[in-house]
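# nightly structure sweep
# worker-07 picked up a monomer target from the shared queue
# config: single-sequence mode, recycle default, output format = structure tokens
# input follows
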Amino acid sequence: MKGDLKDKTAKGLMWSAVNNGATQVLNLVFGIVLAHFLTPSDYGVTGVLVIFSTIAANLQDSGFSQALINLQNPTKRDYDSVFWFNLMMSVSLYAILFFCAPLLAWHFEMPCLVEVSRVVFLGFVIAGLSISSGAYLRKNLKNKEIAILSLTALVLSGVVGIVMAMNDMSYWSLVAQQLTYITFITLGRFFYCRWLPSLHFSFAPVRSMMGFGMHMLVTNVVNTLSEHLLTFVMGSHFKSKSVIGNFTQANKWNLMASKMVSETVGQLAQTVLVEVTDDKERELRVFRKLLRFTAFFAMPAMLGLAVVAEEFILVSIGEKWVDCIPMMRILCIGGAFLPLYTLYRNLTVSSGKGRVYLWLGVSQVVMQIAVVVCFMSLGIIPMVVSFVVFQILWIGVWQTFARRYLGMRWRMLCADVAPYLLASLAAVSSAYFSTMCLTNLWMLLISRVFISAVVYLLIMWLWHDDILREINAKYLKKNVS
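# output follows
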């Protein structure tokens, strides 16, 4: 059993890395092309809807996807019940949001939101059909199938979006891209699962998962509010599609890079941690290994992106997006720590501490709102800075839970994360100061990326870092736990 878990985890990490790495590269390419054809205002129209569509998706999911994964041996009856429950939730919520569309358009002073929102919100109805099948793939660590499906859907939807943008269809290009992706993912999950829901529906499995599922639901909604809070505040306070669009663009690149790491780990962390909950010593070893793996990639990637933000934006999408550069730099500093959130949250979920997960999330959003409101009158940049600083500090609250539950002490956290943070700071500082004399943007971008990578890997090699050694020796497969 132990060997099987190691083998599945190693393969899961590999395919998660392939999936997320290729996904971010494709997102990079499609994002650059679309940004050349579209304007900040186009992104602003769809940007204000992200928080609503994501919350709707959380409500339609109702936390049951995570509940299914957390079951030791979910049955077909469990998957069937969750499918029909989510379908009913999806249709009901779409009906509510359909009639709320004029209210959204009035609040953000964008008349076009009436039609756009009604089309965008179709996405969570379509996605609702694949909650059970998606949980099945994750529960069984079908990361290879998930990767193939995700990348195919991304290519198809990206082509659709670009073709429409080239034909001057403005923000509708982004809407079509989103719906194409969701539809293909839904169909593909059914194909790989070879599963169709039974017409015999019972509420019993849903009721048995309701407590855990509702905790996950509320917390997922809270996490969504936390992630998209600034977009909503900017849309409500500044009433400018360009401001919203620039922030959306900055946050897109930040999340694209940070989620490459967090989703690589997150796709299998909960499943793996559930398998070792009966052995706290082993669970601590697994958690710390995942923590080091996360920090090894997240710190240099995000701090490096913060340093090259100006060159990257100017080279890739042009001067019309120059206003997003300061926000992108600040967000990327916070983005270095976001993957750690994912790991701590997975630890909480896998341990069955849904109530703790809920209250930590609720407290975080309440305090974030207070911080943002306090700094809102000072302008956009101070507001973004306060938001990021609070995000970094709040990791300490999650660490307090890990200490009580798992014995994960503060010195362990520092020992697991600090070397990668310090090495990353040294690497990006070396790259920045050694290339200040360069004026060509392409040379500046390439030189800083290259120098940062070389210096970081050299420091890790001299430090005899265990993650680097295991990657080099293909040893991770034998030592995940």
